Amino acid sequence: MVTVDRLTKMAHFTPVRGLPTAAHTASLFLQNVYRLHGVPESIVSDRGVQFTSRFWKHFCRALGISVDLSTAYHPHTNGQTERVNQSLETYLRCYTTYLQDDWDTLLCTAEYAYNARLHDSTRCSPFFMLYGYHPPPLPDLPSVTPVPGVASRLRALRQCRRTARDSLIAAQTVYKAYADRRRSASVTYSVGQRVWLSTRHLRLSCPSKKLGPKYIGPFTIVSMIGPVAARLQLPSRYRFHPVVHVSLLKPVGTNVFPGRSLPPPPPVSTDGSDAFEVAQILDSRLRRGVLQYLVDWVGYDPEERSWEPAVYVRAPALVRAFHVAHPGRPGPLRV
User: Fold this and answer.
1) How many of the other CB atoms lie within 10 Å of CB of 140?
2) Nearest residue to 282 via CA among 316, 322, 334
3) Does residue 330 form part of some domain?
4) Which of 171, 167, 164, 166 is nearest to 107 (CA)?
5) Averaged pLDDT for residues 303-325
6) Residue 225: which CATH number?
7) Which end of the chain is more exposed for a tag (fewer CB within 10 A), N or C?
8) How many domains does the chain have?
9) Mean pLDDT highest for which of 106-110, 114-118, 192-196, 225-229?
């Protein structure tokens, strides 16, 4: 588990075998963060199950900690931790054994090397930013000692220092250059704007994703979460998170061929079943005791309207609006 302070850039590397539960994560936080630095004002994390669980939310709420989750499918929202992860991964890959059974013993050296090194953004080491003075330099390790076991340990420690320093510097340089190369000027979006959503992280129902659509929608932006994330108005049957990074969006342009009809949007499979977006509820009826709605689908022509059982129409706002406008039509007991 990697923890990075947003101000000082101080990092702590905690070995964890397997995916920790929310309770285990809370215990690791108390042992490795709270014990040293107290309670933070907020925590930015990815959307792992332990961080989205009720236990973690109530745990942080009890301590007065604001929980901020990274944008769906865009780990750069928590960019500084992702960058440290890349550096740490490079170091461990260079120095761990073939069986990869000693990585946890290397974390202390990697953590010291990271916190003692000059940081690009602050131009100070995290150690200096936190404590106000530079870490004392490690003494030169003697090459000769009368105890063979000590000599072996000193040689390993000397190599660890050298590898940690070189690997972390090289990894941060490469990762920064790669991120800068992929980073481009983003389009400015606004509330109410219609956009297409990239299917890069969606599971489509078409046989081959390579031949499937690159974007689906269009969807309406209901709010902006800062300049780089947008909340979309999605049908309730879409189970993916409605807040997405703007790099996954594309503004809806004008149709360059006014006389040409656009192809209908494909269904999106997010939980093993196809999901289509409901544009409007047009009518309701009872057939053999089953409530049905006449549904107008987004992106489809009027001839594609269909009667659907109410249990399959997961658009509560549209259903409510229909019955408010047509109180005499068949409906559920409570709407």
Assistant:
1) 7
2) 322
3) no
4) 164
5) 87
6) 2.30.30
7) C
8) 3
9) 192-196
